[in-house]
Amino acid sequence: MEELVDKFLHHLSLERGLSSNTVDSYNIDLKRYIKHLKTLKISSFEKVKDRDISKFGLLLYDLGLSASSISRNLSAIRSFHKFLVRENYTESDPTGSIESPRLWRRLPQVFDQKEMEILLDQPEGDKPLSFRDKAILEFMYATGVRVSEMISVKRADLLFEIECVRITGKGGKQRVVPVGEMAVIWTKKYLENSRPQLAHSESGDFLFLNFRGNPLTRMGAWKIIKKYAKKAGIKKRLTPHIIRHSFATHLLEGGADLRAVQEMLGHADISTTQIYTHVDREYLKEVHRTFHPREKMELKKESEDG
Questions:
Q1: Residues 76 and 137 in one domain
Q2: 89: domain CATH number?
Q3: Residue bearing the bigger pLDDT, 21 or 103
Q4: What is the pLDDT of residues 132-187, one digit of tens each?
């Protein structure tokens, strides 16, 4: 089995001209795939069934891999099996009926509204970095921008006279997003009290700067989120986009229109936004208890008995 993988990698490198990094990624994914097959006592690719590949996808999901990582793994497996059939190493391709990895996508981890309030209250004091960090957290929660979008915002993008900001998203696409009063207040405080102390001649027009006066990086922004989540005592598994996920979830929980949220998030496909429409089960049960006819009869009976 390993020999056939080597032949495939050789094909990718020499005949398709893929970069060494890409070939290495295929190698890592296929090695993990072979290990999975061996745990299933499968010693030949000819014996692989579609259910075996589906089990592999679920294994990746259980390992906590993102949808994009699962998709990449399955794409490597598809390409590999097509190669095996084309080169007559196997007779059939078991990948044809593999379900979309979107079916395995995890619901995003979010802060509930109380946790979000606690997080926003963490930056304290009047030091330049405290004002900056408060402004960053308020700005991210108010706009729902990606971390990469937030660090790219420039002062010229601020449209505070209409409480909006111009965001440059994936593929260079621009959108105008509402900011909100609290984020405007704290961003202005940062601009007045902190940024002048941090900036130097090479800072450019970037809005958020690090302590050296250089544009904030993705890692720098991620460290800020982790720092204050830890300070707030929040134990949830953190991701760089957890504030973005919270923004979307809280808007939809409050009754916001899905397409409006899609526009603010900069999603090209509304199906991407729909992942945020999950509703807390306890809330659903409360709605059921309150409004279902049979439940209402029971509540009325309990009231009368009382």
A1: no
A2: 1.10.150.130
A3: 21
A4: 999 999 999 999 999 999 999 999 999 999 999 999 988 888 999 999 899 999 99
Is 170 tagged catalytic? yes
83-95 tens-digit pLDDT: 888 888 888 888 8
Structure tokens at 285: 């049960």
CA separation for the pair 110, 237 (Å, rounded): 9
Task: Tally the C-alpha atoms within 13 A of residue 264's C-alpha that lie toward its C-beta.
Answer: 24
Report how far residue 225's alpha carbon sits from residue 245's, in angstroms, rounded to the nearest whole number.
Answer: 13
Residues 203 and 249 in one domain: yes
Higher pLDDT residue, 57 or 225? 225
Which is the catalytic residue, given 132, 134, 195, 244? 244
69 and 165 in a single domain? The answer is no
Structural domain boundaries, residue 71: 2-104
Q: Respond yes or no: is residue 33 known to be catalytic.
A: no
Query: Residue 292: what pLDDT?
Result: 61
Please tell me which residue in 146, 195, 245, 250 is annotated as part of the active site: 146
- The single residue of 170, 230, 289, 300 carrying the catalytic annotation is 170
Q: Is 241 a catalytic residue?
A: yes
Q: Check if 89 is active-site.
A: no
Any catalytic annotation for residue 267? yes
25 & 125 share domain: no
Q: Give a yes or no: residue 284 inside a domain.
A: no
pTM for the structure as a whole? 0.60
Pair (123, 222) in one structural domain: yes
Q: How many domains does the chain have?
A: 2
> How many Cβ atoms from other residues are within 10 Å of residue 114's Cβ?
8
Report the 10 Å Cβ neighbour count for 280.
11
Per-residue pLDDT at 195 exceeds 80: yes
Q: How far is C-alpha 135 from the chain's CA centre?
A: 22
In the set 134, 195, 241, 245, the catalytic residue is: 241
